[in-house]
Design a protein that fits this description.
- By secondary structure, the protein is an alpha+beta fold.
- The protein has helices at 10-22, 53-63, and strands at residues 2-9, 28-33, 40-48, 67-71, 89-93, 96-102.
- It has a 4-stranded antiparallel β-sheet with strand order 2-3-1-6. A two-stranded antiparallel sheet has the order 4-5.
- Strand 2 (28-33) and strand 3 form a beta hairpin.
- Helix 1 packs across helix 2 (53-63).
- The radius of gyration is 17 Å and the shape is elongated.
- 17% of the residues are buried.
- The structure holds ligand 2BA (2 copies).
């Protein structure tokens, strides 16, 4: 079994939920916040048998879009705050940041 954690944009989360439901794939949605943009996003936690991992990845890929976003970072990208002038930058967000982890054991009580 694997645990898939996928950080997606809020705009895509309903569509992704529906697509997973249609395929009978169980998931938990967590409200999360991006460390860089400090804007809300959604983290999906999906416990899934190994043989269905690729199906889930395909569903995530086809339901999460890449979008351009113009932002003024609240912290400097270089790390130092000395002489930091906030400057709007365009960043590409998404479609999804996906982590796949082995599950040692799954219990359901
Ligand atoms: P945020 O941290 O709010 O990042 C939003 C977008 O800003 C990122 O899109 C990326 O294009 C840009 N960005 C982030 N950090 C940057 C930096 N230090 N310098 C320049 N640009 C930067 P994505 O890469 O598609 O990430 C979307 C969201 O997925 C992230 O939101 C974060 O919540 C999550 N994420 C991405 N990579 C992650 C990782 N390695 N670990 C945990 N969460 C991650
Ligand atoms: P929900 O997704 O809201 O599901 C609530 C209950 O609805 C489930 O209880 C199950 O009895 C039923 N259910 C959900 N999806 C189904 C499906 N595709 N076919 C038939 N019945 C379905 P539990 O199994 O006790 O799950 C309770 C909550 O635990 C779930 O809430 C979900 O948030 C989480 N969860 C369960 N299995 C998960 C998994 N494999 N990965 C991630 N989260 C899981």
């Amino acid at each position: 079994m694997k645990l898939i954690m996928a950080v997606v944009q809020d705009k895509d989360s309903n569509r992704l939920s529906n697509a997973l439901n249609v395929e009978g794939i169980r998931a938990t949605k967590l409200a999360s916040t991006g460390g860089f943009l400090r804007a809300g996003n959604t983290t999906f936690m999906i416990g899934i048998e190994d043989e269905s991992v690729e199906v889930v990845l395909q569903i995530i890929q086809s339901n999460c879009k890449v979008r351009e976003q113009l932002v003024t970072p609240v912290t400097p990208m270089g790390g130092t705050t000395d002489s930091y002038i906030p400057f709007p930058v365009e960043v590409q967000v998404g479609g999804a940041a996906v982590f796949i982890m082995p599950v040692e054991r799954f219990e359901h009580y």
